[in-house]
Write a structure and sequence with these properties.
The complex is a heterodimer. By secondary structure, chain A is an alpha/beta fold. Chain A has seven helices and twelve strands. Chain A starts with 11 loop residues before the first helix and ends with a helix. The C terminus of chain A is likely disordered. Helix content of chain B is 42%, strand content 13%. Chain B contains 14 helices and four strands. Chain B is globular. The N terminus of chain B is likely disordered. Classes of the chains: A alpha/beta, B alpha+beta. The interface between A and B is large, with 63 and 49 residues.
Chain lengths: 289, 387
């Protein structure tokens, strides 16, 4: 079934049109560029936007890493990686530093990214205003007029009702002091990683047919108040596997009694930390081998 | 065990094997052929072609087979294939007034020039299970008429219809009679090219051509319910089925180098022209309004529903209040595509543990604060009572 399809599945004309959209997105950081999204051979909501962006920018020499929830071995990440292995026959990796393109769902890798890397995000609902203003016609107008007061009102209402800003993921951020964008459903823990990043961030929303981007070295500020500054999630625990105290931790229920264990969501980061620890503590290495 | 979700490579492989086994079912039962699906489940094939936006009976039947009869899955398969096809040319607009008609009815006149032709319809069947179909060899003892026209299945209907088959091409459009009387606005000559929602994303407010495309691809069930809602009171448009016709039309293209059209073949389509209550104002004389529905193959129910929704969506142009779900362009057009809808709904099956972890952490934090505050308040009030 590989042969009837072009390199990386999409035909060159489609890829060109998506790249044109991406150029516009890079030129106007945070602005949502409409594009003629195609049906992909995986369902909408499963990363079709990200897959189309990746397909459009992928070259024969690229090395691709795909993560979902921070891990390379989650089913959907496996499926998307296999898709590109099959249709583009490119190199894939789980190593964050070896990848030239990282397609992700719901996380940004813990390790800092470099100028030679592009992160492609899968986006379900690209417009941060959507849950406040359902109409596309209206929300586009609001973006054009920089009418973002409602966003702060929503955050304020959270504080007055609950004592906290209740948005924990897909936390809205101001890009380049102009457009408020939805960073896709990454935990707000990852938001600071977007600010002044060396890597290029591309966002693709397949079902909603929108592209947007954060070029390298662009300011990305999570919305907040002077007296309620933006803060990220913290854990009382450390990772059970690598003992990291600075990574995003997943909670895993390990038995019928509901005993919990915390582990890094970024599986490659966790692996690296573990290796580092073992190099420092040879005794652990012996006991585990 | 949750760990199974990680390390998914082997799990996916096994799932695919299980799926293949499930699709094939009991190996002692003969495998279903594409021809059988095409011939005997033709309405399913027609729906998959319509909502899959590709007129290809073989591929639609293949999609149905591969999808184990799940229509939406089959539509999705066909769409994902269609999107990779190169685009050579636009065809001429098909002319449904020159249709090789298999069915053609009007609900607004008792008799119409050319006559009413019921064609192959469920309409007047009694919905009683026909237990004779349980037998595998039903056809062997079947009635003679089944065998008479075996050369071309599509001819079954005209031969049995009440219409004189000699006059097969002479069916004037019922709505034309109303147009002659100026009771309906005249058909517009389309001069500029139509929008193509598969090449330009839908933009609001959308053009009528984009709207009609989106509605043709739209989920039949969704349109059916929306259309129904307009009849039940959420936006009455007083519809009448002006004319419903199903049959074959020529598809032709014009090539720049040649000064004549080339006919590529014919496709089967269903069309519904709905007539609705009046528009008009002080300057403009009252006229009926119109809703339009079309599909590949025999998807009559879909075309009726589409015509109702198309009419409701014209509220803005006609200066009507937009106060019902069916009249809200963005609501209807953004949610009617079942490939989009089914994808996004089913993505909830994907892991969300990072986001859920974030919510968990916040809810725990808030509960902790809630209880410590309550405790403090209680302590304070006790202290107050004692003091």
């Amino acid at each position: 079934m590989d042969e009837p399809y072009n390199f990386a599945y999409l035909d060159e004309q489609t890829k060109r049109s998506i790249r044109r959209g991406l150029l516009k997105a890079v030129a106007i950081p945070g602005y949502q560029v409409p594009f003629a999204g195609r049906e992909m051979p995986m369902p909408y909501g499963w990363g079709t936007g990200g897959v189309q962006v990746t397909a459009s920018i992928l070259g024969k020499d690229d090395t691709l890493k795909v993560i979902d929830q921070g891990a390379d071995d989650t089913t959907n990440a496996v499926s998307i990686r296999q898709f590109f292995e099959k249709t583009a026959k490119i190199k894939t990796t789980t190593k964050t530093d070896k990848a030239t393109i990282i397609q992700t769902r719901h996380r940004i890798p813990e390790q800092s990214l470099t100028r030679d890397q592009i992160v492609v995000f899968q986006v379900p609902v690209p417009d941060p205003l959507r849950f406040i203003e359902a109409s596309e016609t209206e929300s586009r107008k609001m973006h054009a007029l920089e009418e973002y007061g409602v966003m702060h009102v929503k955050l304020y209402e959270d504080i007055s009702h609950l004592g906290h800003i209740a948005t924990t993921y897909a936390y809205p951020a101001m890009v380049n002091d102009r457009y408020v964008m939805d960073p896709s459903p990454i935990p707000k823990f990852d938001n600071p990683k977007m600010n002044m990043s060396e890597a290029l961030f591309l966002f693709g929303a397949g079902r909603e047919k929108r592209l947007y981007a954060i070029p390298p070295y662009t300011s990305v500020n999570s919305l907040d108040f002077d007296d309620h500054p933006f803060e990220i999630q913290q854990w009382d625990d450390v990772c059970e596997i690598c003992a990291s105290a600075e990574s995003f931790l997943d909670e895993v229920i390990i038995d019928d009694e509901g005993t919990r264990m915390f582990v890094c969501s970024d599986s490659y980061f966790c692996e690296q930390q573990k290796i580092k620890n073992e190099q420092c503590q040879p005794i652990v290495l012996v006991s585990e081998s | 065990m949750y760990v199974a979700v990680k390390g998914g490579e082997e799990a996916i492989e096994n799932a695919h094997k299980l799926l293949a086994r499930k699709r094939r079912g009991d190996l002692t039962v003969t495998e279903l052929s594409i021809t059988q699906i095409k011939q005997q489940l033709s309405l399913a094939v027609d729906r998959v072609m319509t909502e899959g936006s590709l007129y290809d009976q073989d591929l639609a039947a293949l999609a149905l087979k591969q999808a184990m009869g799940d229509t939406i899955e089959a539509i999705f398969l066909l769409r994902a294939y269609r999107t990779t096809l190169p685009r050579f040319n636009f065809t001429q607009i098909i002319d449904t007034s020159c249709m090789r008609v298999e069915r053609r009815i009007s609900a607004i006149y008792k008799d119409i020039p050319g006559g009413q032709a019921l064609g192959p319809t469920f309409d007047y069947t009694h919905r009683l299970l026909d237990f004779s179909l349980l037998a595998d060899d039903y056809e062997n003892e079947g009635d003679d008429f089944l065998r008479n026209s075996e050369t071309e299945t599509h001819n079954v209907a005209p031969q049995l219809s009440a219409v004189n088959t000699d006059k097969i091409d002479e069916y004037p459009k019922v709505l034309d009679f109303l147009k002659q009387e100026d009771l309906l606005p005249p058909s517009k000559n389309i001069t500029k090219s139509v929008d193509d929602i598969t090449r330009e994303p839908l933009d609001y407010p959308s053009s009528r051509s984009a709207r009609l495309q989106q509605l043709t691809r739209a989920d039949e069930g969704f349109l059916l319910s929306l259309g129904y809602s307009t009849q039940r009171g959420y936006g009455r448009t007083h519809p009448f089925a002006g004319e419903i016709r199903m049959g074959y039309v020529d598809v032709s293209i014009t090539i720049d180098e040649l000064d004549f059209d080339i006919c590529l073949g014919e496709i089967c389509v269903s069309e519904c022209e709905m007539i609705n209550q009046f528009s008009g104002n002080r300057t403009q004389a009252p006229q009926f309004t119109q809703g339009y529905g079309i599909s590949f193959g025999f998807c009559e129910r879909k075309t009726l529903a589409m015509a109702l929704v198309d009419r409701s969506l014209q509220a803005k142009e006609l200066g009507e209040a937009i106060d019902t779900p069916a009249a809200q362009e963005e609501f209807v057009l953004s949610h009617c595509d079942n490939v989009e809808a089914s994808g996004f709904v089913s993505h909830l099956k994907l892991p969300h543990y990072v986001d859920f972890q974030s919510e968990l952490a916040l809810v725990r934090k808030m509960r902790k604060e809630h209880f410590s505050k309550n405790l403090a308040d209680k302590f304070k009030s006790e202290e107050h009572a004692n003091g």
